[in-house]
Write a structure and sequence with these properties.
about 160 residues, 5-stranded mixed sheet, alpha/beta
Length: about 160
Amino acid sequence: MEDVKLLSKLGIDPDVASQYQILCLPENIENQIETTQLVDSGESITLSKLLKEEGVKCANSYDLGLNAKISERRGVDIWLGSIWILNHAALPLFISVIGRLLGEKIQKKLDATNQLKASQKSDDSEGTQVYADLKIMDGKISAEIKYNGDADTFLKVLKSINDEQ
């Protein structure tokens, strides 16, 4: 499998990585062979922490021994990096945590502008863009979604994946 080869090239033991349910990896992991060039997003690190709090066996770059730089972006967009779901049983918790993360980001935007009414809160999520490379690799099931779009649609896509499985 090409993904396992990628991990090996970066010095990650595939057997160690397979012990996790979800891997939150650098956004440029597929484009870099040198570990010094890898870049994690701040949201990816936050996501891995939230998943761990929920009891998901999750690893980020640091857990896997990668020395990735961290990119902190300011704004309302969410950059999740490359997320590998190795066990679809973790998908419902992943969706729940993503929903909470998006909700907090949208709420911060509302608080900052302080010009929108509470009833417009759900409409405002269209202004928050999500950037993610999602790979689901569980046994014979394998799918990849490169998503660049609004937060509401991202949640709908995730929920539809969960419903299909």
